[in-house]
Amino acid sequence: MVRAMIRELTAALMEDGEMLIKFLKDEYLIRNFKLDDIEALVRYANNYNIFRWVKDNFPYPYSIKDAEQWITVSRNTNDGLNYAIANQNELIGGIGVKFKEDVYRYSWELGYWLGEPFWGKGIVTEAVKVFTKYLFNHYNIRSITANVYEGNKASMRVLTKAGFKLDGVIRKAVFKEKLFWDLYVYSLLREEVK
Ligand SMILES: CC(C)(COP(=O)(O)OP(=O)(O)OC[C@H]1O[C@@H](n2cnc3c(N)ncnc32)[C@H](O)[C@@H]1OP(=O)(O)O)[C@@H](O)C(=O)NCCC(=O)NCCS
To answer: Where is the signal peptide (predicted)?
Structure first.
């Protein structure tokens, strides 16, 4: 038990305040955003097939200026923790949590996206597993939630495979692309993490 915890903690290396978690046989990383990421961020984030499933504050089209702003903001915000998903060569996606306030402060909200060429390889499922473990090991939170829009089967599947449970559906809570959609709310409790 203690050994397993030490393994997990050492897997999440903190180098000079830099976040680094390796996963899927060290082929992929969760790490801080870097200014070098701008080109890859624009290449993969500038995609309607991503935009349609995320909040409107994720821009579309996604410009170089948006990427520069995001990289600066993501490293300096007090609103949450935001990291890049990367392979050995470049950034391929993003993962993070938004802090919540008041009575919700022990429950953070997870978000993620992946460049379309990398979909369907199990990358985000594994990223969610290692990232949620990291969060529970390093922060005094009770649960992690995730909000998925009606129809986003891939994201629902990721969460289920990563151990999240569907808490419920908030009807027509989402207004996206001029239409109202149901919101599927998932959560993972501290004691459910293996
Ligand atoms: C959701 C997303 C992050 C998934 O990343 P990924 O690395 O491709 O996910 P994984 O490969 O780990 O798992 C995807 C699962 O969904 C399944 N899936 C994909 N499309 C599906 C569909 N249309 N219907 C049903 N299942 C689907 C895959 O088969 C896989 O399940 P399996 O392992 O049982 O076969 C990626 O598709 C994405 O960035 N989408 C746009 C942004 C987004 O939706 N963000 C989340 C907002 S809540």
So the answer is: none
